[in-house]
Amino acid sequence: MKLTLRVWRQKNAAADGAMSTYEVDGISRDMSFLEMLDTLNEELIVKGEDPVAFDHDCREGICGACSLVINGDAHGPERTTTCQLHMRSFEDGDTIDIEPWRASAFPVVKDLVVDRSAFDRIIQSGGYISAPTGSAPEAHAAPVPKPDADSAFEHAECIGCGACVAACPNGSAMLFTSAKVNHLNVLPQGAPERETRVLDMVAQMDEEGFGGCTLTGECATACPKGIPLPSISAMNKEWLRATRKVGR
Amino acid sequence: MTRTLWDSTIGKKTVMAVSGLIMLLYLFAHMFANLKIFFGPEEINRYAHWLRTLGEPFLHYEWTLWLVRVVLVAAVVAHATSAYQLSRRDIRARPTSYVHKRRGATFATRTMRWGGVILGLFIVWHILDLTTGTVHPGGYEHLRPYQNVIDTFSTWYGNVIYLVAVTALGFHVRHGLWSAAQTLGVGTATRDRVLKPLATGLALVLTAGFVSVPVAVMTGLVS
Ligand code: HEM
Ligand code: SF4
Ligand code: FES
């Protein structure tokens, strides 16, 4: 396949960026999107140019490091991560626009790399349980009803990639935060911090400068792990309950 | 707790949802009452008088009406203030747009802000027209809504302003009612299958009810 790529290039956080056009040839339909970018970068290095910086790690759809808005879609046209997107989703001769996640809480570091440490700080504010560590507890000591276990697993799938923020017209982190809150709040292990968790994580989310939710639904459409939109409603319910209960 | 509510994006959105639902409740009552115009001047003019004596003898003449007005003004102010502040925040959170544009959300979702502004302006005009009579075409007569409504809908601009506003209302309620359910924590995957069509249905009923009045005047059904 022969492709035209229009890629966001930006030297550093302070510099102005712009879209630059590149041609790549000899792309196999079986390559992943990131392998296609590797091919481009090899050519750029041979020519003595600065390779395109982009985030990646596991390349198997589980770590949440990869990003990229591809033709306006976070993680591209398929419901998966960019690393699991394959070139067979494109046609020979296509022009592909590649941009970084856009949100003021995710500033661009270089080219397509953004700083997602705001997510880490949201997790630090309440995305944990106060469990006694040491020997593993007996598995049946804390019974978990099947629907709760399913819900916890569904939300635990969130890999913290930030596609939800990138897709949201308000740069809102409600879907991510709701995945993390609901994951622990439905479980007995998460019960001791049930109220403080949701209050602190939402406060940190606001503190980081993410926007509010207008129920546009773009986040859930973009999420590679299928975190559903009603998770946000479930978090709102937890937040309202905690506000009444804790009274702060 | 009040501070937590107002300082949090979720809390402010809760204020928006509750004030929106209060206005929505009022609008349904208002729409049903308007339909009395189809039963002649006597019926609706008597109703206008009854509204003012509602609550007597416990409450003085017009007190109930003023109570409703105070609640509604408070709801409009709370709703518009939280909408403005949240919108400012949302725009700041996403300062750079993508070079590659994609199709956005539904029309109702995309027009919440401008639709809201249209509704706000309409509320002002509507009060000056049919409550105070300040900008009313033809002689405004207190407690004679039948005649006043016919005056307004006998002008082209009266019809245009009203129809635009009521259409905007339909779209606003379509997204707003479902959104309010999500904001208040009622939404689940199962319930949303009912809530979405319900919001659309109620928005349609509300709009159709309001639209029927100017249409009746324009077609001469009410004169
Ligand atoms: C002063 C004029 C108004 C303005 C400026 C305004 C503005 C807005 C805005 C910006 C939103 C949020 C949109 C979003 O989430 O995407 C909203 C939501 C809403 N509006 Fe209005 N609106 C106005 C009048 C009304 C009226 C008359 C009603 C009554 C039917 C209403 C009912 C609602 C409801 C129920 C919501 C949903 C709240 C939520 O999302 O939780 N609004 N409004
Ligand atoms: S909710 Fe989905 S899109 Fe958002 S960070 Fe988690 S996995 Fe990524
Ligand atoms: S690189 Fe790990 S999820 Fe894509």
TrEMBL record, chain A:
SUPFAM superfamilies assigned: 2Fe-2S ferredoxin-like, alpha-helical ferredoxin
CC cofactor: [3Fe-4S] cluster; [2Fe-2S] cluster
Keywords associated with the record: Iron, Iron-sulfur, Metal-binding
Cross-referenced InterPro entries: 2Fe-2S_ferredoxin-like_sf, 2Fe-2S_ferredoxin-type, 2Fe2S_fd_BS, 4Fe4S_Fe-S-bd, 4Fe4S_Fe_S_CS, Beta-grasp_dom_sf, Helical_ferredxn, SDH/FRD_Iron-Sulfur
Superkingdom of this protein's organism: Bacteria
Family stated for the protein in its record: Belongs to the succinate dehydrogenase/fumarate reductase iron-sulfur protein family.
Protein known as: Succinate dehydrogenase
A Pfam family per the record: Fer4_8
Residue span(s) of domain 4Fe-4S ferredoxin-type: 149-179
All copies of domain 2Fe-2S ferredoxin-type, residue ranges: 1-102
From TrEMBL, chain B:
Tree of life domain: Bacteria
Keywords associated with the record: Membrane, Transmembrane, Transmembrane helix
Transmembrane annotation, as ranges: 15-33, 63-86, 107-128, 156-177, 198-222
Keyword Repeat: no
Matching Gene3D superfamilies: Fumarate reductase/succinate dehydrogenase, transmembrane subunit
Entry keyword GTP-binding: no
InterPro entries membership: Cytochrome_b-558, SQR/QFR_C/D
Protein name as catalogued: Succinate dehydrogenase
